[in-house]
Design goal:
Layout lengths: L8 H21 L5 H14 L4 E11 L2 E13 L3 E6 L6 H14 L3 E6 L9 E5 L1
Parallel strand pairs: 3-4
Antiparallel strand pairs: 1-2, 2-3, 4-5
Helix pairs in contact: 1-2
């Protein structure tokens, strides 16, 4: 089994800040809203915490010698090192995790968070992924 380098402590702390912010959003709003609502509120929380991030970041695909705009859009890139994918779905499916893995590969980031806000308790709504 291959051994991975540990995630840098600063990245772990940043992921915790994101999760804490997501918990606050879920506590205030609860489940049942559109993903875009949760995204805007999470962005507000990150701005309040003075965390650098990019939202709705276009991800081009490099194929041979060409760049393809395939319409891939990353929900949040936090601190240029952590990919955050938001959902508001009944249940997280394998395709959602595959999407996050694809975004990690394309951004060359190692740490990703899959946040599903459509759960009664947010502790059951997040998945941490390391590549």
């Amino acid at each position: 089994m291959p051994e991975f380098e540990p995630i840098p402590e600063g990245d772990e702390k940043l992921a915790k800040v994101v999760l804490d912010a997501a918990f606050r959003v879920h506590t205030k709003l609860g489940p049942g809203l559109l993903e875009s609502v949760y995204e805007q509120c999470l962005c507000h929380e990150l701005l309040q915490a003075r965390i650098l991030f990019q939202s709705q970041l276009m991800l081009p695909i490099q194929y041979d010698q060409i760049v393809i705009d395939a319409g891939l859009r990353l929900d949040l890139l936090v601190g240029e090192r952590t990919v955050v994918e938001l959902k508001a779905v009944e249940s997280v499916l394998p395709i959602h995790k595959a999407q996050l893995f694809t975004y990690l590969k394309l951004t060359k980031c190692r740490l990703g968070l899959l946040l599903n806000f459509n759960v009664p308790q947010f502790k059951h709504g997040f998945t941490r992924v390391v590549c």
